[in-house]
Predict the 3D structure of the following.
Amino acid sequence: MISQTIFVRGGSALAASDELKAACVKALDANSRLDIDLSGTESMDLSGVQVLLAASEAARSSGLAFELVSPIPEIVRAALARTGLDPSMFALTR
């Protein structure tokens, strides 16, 4: 199985979320295991959380692996917590 890691750097506001979404769609269309490295993320808003949820669900429905990897920054944990989510829900493997 092909594995792709997407590195998110800086903020994950609406504009950056569109880029993240496009990268996730490309990886999933290639039937790749998808790892998201958020270690360089400095901010995350609801649009970033929505992209992570959508990519996770798309991977799951396609039988593909999806995981948040590396230490997850506190800013990302806080964004997930504001929506009632826990980062561990994204770890579908390992």
Remarks:
- The radius of gyration is 12 Å.
- The domain at 3-90 is CATH 3.30.750.24 (Transcription Regulator spoIIAA).
